[in-house]
Specification:
With about 180 residues, the protein is of the alpha+beta class. Helix content is about 65%, strand content about 10%.
Length: about 180
């Protein structure tokens, strides 16, 4: 019971902290970047530029009717995030790395959902990276949480699969001997 309580506290505090950081950066971006030309740093490898995104990843879906965007990007995404959150909080055994990854993904999702709910379906983006003509789309801190959370989850899944197959191979060798 003690782990479950501390796990749930970790998840909820993590989400609240990450969403808070994301929202603070978006407020700062809106106040400082929305009226100026893009700011360039490190030989133009990093840019701060204000953008409002009505779509999802790289603006996909921005051409959909407003009602469809609302049901897909706000209601459906909100329902999926809530399902994942409740499922994660109810699971008795989630290792720390998976829990951290899921918390980051949820926090990023909720950070962008907060934008959609309070900004008429618009998510504020303000960062861009690249070299020369090869550039990322414009993104925000929530997107960084989602990306790093997904990469961490993938790494944990790939390494845990390798560990379990290594353990099975050792067991097979022991059984053969």
């Amino acid at each position: 019971m003690r782990f479950r309580l501390s796990k749930n506290v970790f998840v909820m505090l993590g989400i609240a902290s990450f969403v808070g950081c994301d929202q603070v950066t978006k407020v700062i971006a809106k106040e400082t970047l929305s009226t100026v030309a893009p700011l360039s740093f490190v030989n133009d490898m990093f840019r701060l530029t204000y953008a409002e995104n009505t779509g999802v990843f790289l603006g996909m879906g921005k051409g959909l009717p407003e009602g469809v965007r609302f049901w897909l990007f706000t209601v459906a995404v909100g329902a999926v995030l809530m399902f994942i959150l409740v499922d994660t909080l109810r699971r008795p055994n989630v290792d720390r790395w998976r829990l951290t990854a899921i918390t980051m993904i949820l926090a990023g999702g909720f950070g962008n959902l907060v934008d959609r709910v309070f900004n008429d379906g618009v998510v504020i983006d303000f960062m861009n990276m690249g070299l020369g003509p090869l550039r990322t789309g414009i993104f925000n801190v929530a997107d960084v949480f989602i990306t790093f959370g997904a990469l961490l989850f993938l790494a944990v899944e790939l390494t845990s699969g390798k560990e379990s197959s290594d353990t099975e191979t050792k067991r097979e060798r022991t059984a053969e001997a």
